[in-house]
Design goal:
Blueprint (H helix, E strand, L loop, with lengths): L2 H16 L5 H7 L8 H12 L1 H4 L15 H5 L20 H7 L18 H12 L30 H12 L10 H13 L5 H9 L5 H10 L2 H14 L17 H12 L4 H10 L8 H6 L16 H21 L18 H8 L21 E4 L2 H27 L1 H10 L15 E5 L17 E4 L9 E5 L2 E5 L4 E4 L12 E8 L6 E7 L10 E7 L2 E9 L3 E7 L8 E8 L8 E5 L2 E2 L2 E6 L16 E2 L12 E8 L5 H7 L6 H4 L8 H14 L2 H22 L2 E4 L10 E4 L7 E5 L18 H8 L7 H14 L20 H13 L4 H10 L1 H4 L6 H6 L12 E2 L2 H12 L51 H5 L18 H9 L1 H15 L4 H13 L5 H20 L5 H4 L12 H15 L2 H4 E2 L1
Antiparallel strand pairs: 1-18, 2-17, 3-6, 4-5, 5-17, 6-16, 7-12, 7-17, 8-9, 8-16, 9-10, 10-11, 11-15, 12-13, 13-14, 19-20, 21-22
Helix pairs in contact: 2-7, 3-7, 9-11, 9-12, 11-27, 12-13, 14-24, 18-23, 25-26, 25-27, 30-33, 32-33, 33-34, 33-37, 34-37, 35-37
Protein name: Cytochrome c domain-containing protein
Keywords: Signal
GO molecular function: electron transfer activity; heme binding; hydrolase activity, hydrolyzing O-glycosyl compounds
Length: about 1050
Amino acid sequence: MSKYTLLLAASLFLCYACSTELPPDLAAELKTLPSELDYNLHVKPILSDKCFACHGPDKAKQKAGLRLDIAEAAYARLEENPGKVAIAKGSLRRSEVFHRIISTDPEYLMPSPASHLSLSNREKAILIKWIKDGAEYQPHWAFVAPKKTEVPKVKKAGWVKNPIDNFIVQKLEEEKLAPSPEASKEILLRRLSLDLTGLPPTLTEIDAFLQDKSPKAYEKQVDRLLNSPHYGEKMAVDWLDLARFADSHGYTVDRLRDMSPYRDWVIQAFNANQKYDQFIQWQLAGDMMPKPSKDMIIATAFNRNHPQNMEGGIIEEEFQTEYVVDRTNTFGEAFMGLSLGCAKCHDHKYDPLSQQNYYEIFSFFNNVKEAGQISWNSAPPTPTLMLPTEKQEKIIRFIQKTIAEQEQKITQLQAQSEPDFKQWLQSGAYQTLAKAKIPQNGLQAHYTFEDGDLKNSVNPKQIGIMKRETGMTGDKPDFVATNSGKALKMEGDVYLDLNEVGVFRKSEPFSIGIKVNIPKGLKEGVIFHKSSAERLYNFRGYHLYLKNDRLEINMAHTAPSNAISRVSQQPVPRDRWIQLTLTYDGSSRAEGFKLYQDGQALAMETTMDQLYKDIIFNSNPELGLQIGAWWRGLGFKGGQVDDIMVYQRELTPFEVEILAQKQSWPSIVSKKHQQLSAKEVAILQAYYQNSVSPGLLAAQKALQISRTQLSDSSAQVEELMVMQEMTKPKKTFLLQRGNYDMSGKEVFPNTPSAILPFPNNLPKNRLGLAQWLCLPEHPLTARVAVNRFWQNFFGAGLVKTTEDFGNQGELPSHLALLDWLALSFVESGWDIKALNKLIVMSATYRQSSKVNKNLREKDPENRFLARGPAYRMSAEMIRDNALTASGLLNKKIGGKSIKPYQPQGLWEINSANYAQDTTDAVYRRSLYIVVKRSVPHPTLATFDAGSRSYCVVRRQKTNTPLQALVTLNDPTFLEASKVLGVQMCNMPDARKAIVEVYRRLTGRQPAADEVELLLGLQKKQREKFQQNPEKTRGWLNAGLYKVDPTLDVALLAANAVVANTILNSDATLTRR
């Protein structure tokens, strides 16, 4: 090709590229558009879906440095071609976007073919018209505070029952649609009862409503159901999905846990009509309220409902981070309808949420002292709240009062013991102390290693054993020579097991002395401990640990929060012998837990001081003191130990100096009492009070008994995981790529300014965050809540994507109504029952769900609401409906979860045993069925019950053959059918029996042809069972319910088939 030809082709291409002439199909599409475009309604959905992935808020993914989500960037000169702009207001010729979207050159076309995000002709036409009209940007509708609008006036004013209907009718009139007539009273009452209580109406309730001809008949039913104790149960089902409530920890092991007190609180809160702002503030930060009540703290279990991992070998910090990530993501989705999690690893690709925004919110939830690897036993992960019964609380308070009195009495006895002490001093009895090199009173064990063995010199029958961290024996002790004799060298994986020595409860005073030589290169490791493993049981017991050149003493029931933890404030000496003594007074307080180095008390920082349960395992035998290593943890590698002493009492400071060979008794007791200095007298007086005085020893023994009684009483008290703020705020860093071990810059608590800046007058903590969420000007909180409550009644929210109010979410079907409801909700004082009543009292809610072909074609998903909602009942409703209709339902409210019928062996996948309930607990509501995260109850799972491993605000809806197999074969439904069959046997008129059962299950009268079909089925099935009685067994043996043996089993089985057929019908399973 000649140079001239190339230049001509290039010129023609440039002319075409600069042309604003449209292809005929695009020009035709432009003519179909409305005269005015709305940016949020028409334009932004296209930009968000097709452009923001490469030209949106995520800086890391922005191509060519171009942003199209904000006006200033879209109007600015292009980074790669400063002579051009992406969008020129009102000018297609100057807008690069226009030329790109209409191009036929794959190298020039945008979106690029490689992205698979091509624009339709209509989408191109909308963008073209928008640019021609001035390319005006508007803020995202959900990030602008709702504005009160006037209730619209409509032509069908006679149909309207409250303002909701005005907004709905206005839209219907725009779409040239008419609302549907009101549903029949039977249908309406069943709909209302299911929506407000999750239970069907009884025949008595149906008949009473049918007979009530008063103008307020329907409203009376609304008020009755709103005040039903079962209202709270129904409301709780959806909230527990959102709160990811479960009865197990999740992950591979998935052990059970008990969070039922939180579920009980949620039910009670809904029944009491707790205002929504208070309801969510308590859950987010109830523990931080002024003088928080027990209920306020229980509510914070919301933040701890997430899965927690107990698998061995996991990385502590990784899972601590995961738990905070869960809280952060749940906060965003549950309360603001935002996919915050999309900003964990990078800036959000579609919404104005940066990665820094994410970790600023993350920091609000990152100030809890919790374990990443939770305890292998049944101890609830801390922090926890003790939940004693009324009886337990009385006992505990009595013991606590007794302890306080006994502690005061000891203080008084110490002051009163002066005369007795002087008499003892003058008698010279103290001079006998010269006989022993170390204190002998209370000495349980002493290991010197001088004879090259591991014998306890106090009790030579007690011989220590060298063990591997796995518990294997066979290793020989490695004795090394020192200036003072022999010492034991530790290699880090082998420990000295002292068997039953050192077994103490938190109520028992004790002291442990040990000489150690810490090698220079050892950064971290355990010196001694009495526990099962490092993290396996969250450090239950006590230990002395070297970390970061400091010494840590710890005593725990379940670390890190049900514990005492203290850390020395000075560096530990290396490569020389030092003597360490730990003393404890049995008080369960940090001040009673001391550490001495070479006889001198070390300055200690207390990092945790709330030990409220015992430190032993109550196993037989109980594990004793172990030196130098522990299972799955770092040991005292290269270190040396010597002269180990264990006392069953708290040593005095002078006695500690004796162990460190800094003092000795002979230097004092060799003197006559008149020659003693004041300091020496004080030393002897401390010894007298601690080891001699009969009155004080008896008082101390009584105090120890009371403290043990408190430990025993507290052991029976149940605990609930809750939130508890750390006194010293934890630093938070932006995690690069979301990785726990890739810390970036430090961030501080804050909220995204694109949503609502955090006010200066609120505290920068969880309480402040909860208060920020409920500010009247917050654009999302009320909208999201109202939308979710609307979804409960219509099957879909006004914003269908309940979980996403951001740029990728669906636009509201009725924005003005959503805003009106949101503002009314706030103005009502966040009154949930008032909102629900407003919705169900509307003519919109009361419409018949019948639909004609025209309406179905125009609005298949019922987004215009020209008819009542009809959809399959929820998983819980389907089971509860069968139990209610049969009369089996156990209506007990609250309490622990139940284990109803379930196929055998399901839980064996993670070595768990499913012990099915054998009482009427199996007939309790589905709300109470145990939720094991790794193995959800198959019936509920098949009918789309929410996953409880993460926050779910909108359940999926499926329709599969498995669902029919469940209602045809699950023992619950077979048993309900059997019980209904028994009741039918007791009714002499078969026709009336069928009508009654049909009404119980469906809430309405059957049509005549339906009755005839069922009568025919009954007759056919009865003949079948009479010919083959063996086939009745499946029905007779279903469930726990025992059948009267005198009944006609063929008739019973036939009736059960009829009942089960009705139960499986669309009329039963569909909430209309």
